[in-house]
Every structure is written in structure tokens, then in C-alpha cells.
Amino acid sequence: MKLFCWALMAIFTTSISWAEITKDATEQLADLLSPINSFSANFHQQLLDSKGISYQKLTGILHGHKPNQVHWTVFQPAAQMIVSNGTRLWLYDPDLEQVIIEPYANNPEANPVSLLLGGPHQISESFSLIEQKLVNESTRQFVLEPIKLNALYTQLIIEFTHGSLSGISFSDNLGQKTIIEFQNFILNPSFKDNFFTFKIPEGVDVVSYVH
Q1: pTM of the model
Q2: In the predicted model, what is the mean pLDDT of residues 51-79?
Q3: Assigned superfamily of 18-208
Q4: Are 70 and 196 in contact (CB under 8 A)?
Q5: What is the DSSP string of 173-201?
């Protein structure tokens, strides 16, 4: 249900020191993320086991708006929705006719997608940038590791193509990997009022952990 439990070759090398690479790459990543105040994108998500075998694929559309607002809809293989207004998080399963309401946790170590919806400071506070990869002339990846030893993920990769966010992936302690590829990425769209507040359909079961 929690889709947030919830992106890869050719290492970038240079003659300058590792510290200079880290500093320069961190600034570049911040420069690429900072213009994103809101976004919309279609997504394809794959879950891979420790052997690299895909065992689940999801498709849908993701909308985000700073600070910490998200509207995530899965179309295939089964309809699901996650909506957050930055304070509350609604998880809606139409097949089960159930909505779960939880407090929104702005925790990049548990939810890497929240890096796109928070401030640039979250990168340096939560992750160490260990590598920058050039996949080809138009695509670059930034490889990060969580600073906390008990983080849910061991590695995070953020990918940009032609300067636009094109993917994000993360690996967990069991060797499993989640890959999210973005298509038709739209930078800074406008959204209607209350777009990031979920309207609970009539007749569904509501499980609330918000007091």
C-alpha cells in the first residue's frame, strides 16, 4: 500500500581531489533541484529483488508542490492514490474501499521522494554525495548515501537528462531496489486550491492515525 516504501553505469572520473568533486557535485545537484517549486510527471516504477529481477511494475502520474505536498496516482496494475497536504497523508485503495490517514513525515531517509519537495539543505543534512556519474552526454546521475546508519535505504541515485529530472532510485538493506523513471516532466505547473487535500469518497472505511 505504501508506494513510498518507495534511479546507472559509466563512472565520472577527473584529476581533481575527491573533496573538490564532492563539493562541486553537491552544488551542482542543489542548483538542479532548487528551481523545482512544483512538478508533474508520468512515472514508471520497478521493484527489483536482490538478484536484479523485477517483481513489480507500477505506472501512474505524480504531482508535487513545495513544501511537502504530493498527489501520487497509480493506474496499473491496480488503482491506488497517495495525497499529502504537508501535514496529513491519505492512502486510498479503491479496491479495498479504504482510506488510511497518517501524519506526514518529512523524512528523506525513509521517503527519498520528499527530497524533491523540501529545501536544498535536506541533501547535506541527510545524505553524503559519494559519486557523480555521466551516463551519456545528456544524462548525469548523483549517487548519495544516507548519513544515518539506521536509514531504510543504503543508496539513492537522482538522475537528470538535459537538466530535467528524469529518475530517482534507491536500494534497501536487503539488496532490493526501487527505480522510478519520469516522463513528460513539467516544471512548476500551477494547481487548483485544495488539490493536495484528499476528499474522502462516501461509503469507504476510514482508518485514522491522526489525533
Answers
A1: 0.82
A2: 92
A3: Lipoprotein localisation LolA/LolB/LppX (2.50.20.10)
A4: yes
A5: TTS-EEEEEEEEEEES----TTTTS--PP
